[in-house]
Batch of 2 targets.
Target 1
Amino acid sequence: MNEYKGNYTNIHGPIAIVVSKFNEIVTKNLVLGAQETLKQFGIKESDVDVFWVPGAFEIGFTTQKLLNSNKYAGIMSLGAVIKGETDHYSMIIQNVTGAIMQMNLQAKIPITFGILTTENIEQALQRSGLKAGNEGSSTAQSLLEMISLNDQLNK
Ligand SMILES: Nc1c(NC[C@H](O)[C@H](O)[C@H](O)CO)[nH]c(=O)[nH]c1=O
Ligand SMILES: CC(=O)[C@@H](O)COP(=O)(O)O
């Protein structure tokens, strides 16, 4: 991860977090990690809107709506897709990843991807604030970097 420790208070417009309730024991920690990182980098709490959706599958629809609102400087997606007994896991993750990438390529603002895809709950917990870091935090930092880069490229 980038060593930049400054702030991004020059960011114009609020930030949206779209997060799934499915596997909430994991995703609530991803949101906390994201919120903490945004605060550390100088983003006001009032400039961060959190949208909870039922599962990762609903992230695409909601992100599209938020893009159409033209209200946000950037959007991050957070979720936890954990392998079960069937191929449901693969269907969800392939389609959500594809949908987010498609939107990202066409959007005027950046979207970052913080949806964990793990073999089991233990791996997901480790990546949501335990030994393997917090994917919410790194996704938030990536979003700030991309918003700044986007501003630079648009000048
Ligand atoms: N299995 C997981 C899901 N499944 C639920 C779907 O995302 C969706 O909400 C449902 O099919 C209704 O449309 N969601 C996750 O976020 N994580 C999973 O592991
Ligand atoms: C909606 C489904 O197909 C669901 O039963 C998935 O089961 P699993 O997570 O065990 O693959």
Target 2
Amino acid sequence: MKTAVVVFPGSNCDRDLAVALEGVTGTKPIMVWHRETELPVGLGLIAVPGGFSYGDYLRSGALAARSPIMRAVADKAAGGMPVFGVCNGFQVLTEAGLLPGALMRNAGLDFVCRDVALTVDNSQSAFTSRYAAGETIKVPVAHHDGNYVADQETLDRLEGEGRVAFRYGEEVNGSARRIAGILNDAGNVLGMMPHPERRIEGAHGGTDGRRLFEGLLEIAG
Ligand SMILES: NC(=O)CC[C@H](N)C(=O)O
């Protein structure tokens, strides 16, 4: 499967994502600089990595969301291509309007960097099909703006439509309803704060993140 990783000034998890994607797909991802206006053809996944794009100035992800490449990402997402945003990537996707809600400063005002328990709420999406519904997995978080907020109506809609992909099994950052990852209405865009790309091989202390990428591979055929 051909994949692309979008890179912004200040991205710092782009290489983690590239190594994970290459490990799972067997093909090196194409790294796409934010100033590009077009994405390579034939992609099975666009990945938006974690980091501190534009130094988190203004709001995390706000400036990156206005990069030239994000128009192409939005077009591909509208066409049904899987788009995965992790951590800062999740922040970028909410700021770009591809996902609802926003990521605010953690409730404790601290940078949280540790393993957390996540429950898989929806195991039917392209990203979560290799997990069992209700399964608990362990994946690391590393962020200061992971506190997911949205109005009650949006939260109810996300829950009602099965668009909460992952939920924290414990209090982590103050996120509404302990939401850790959400899907767009079509189910082809996932944003999540925890880092599955850092749980790919035994040396990482576990492989719980690997199945997310394997599920996508299965769909791409
Ligand atoms: N690891 C990351 O992507 C960090 C995301 C973001 N800059 C934050 O700290 O909230």
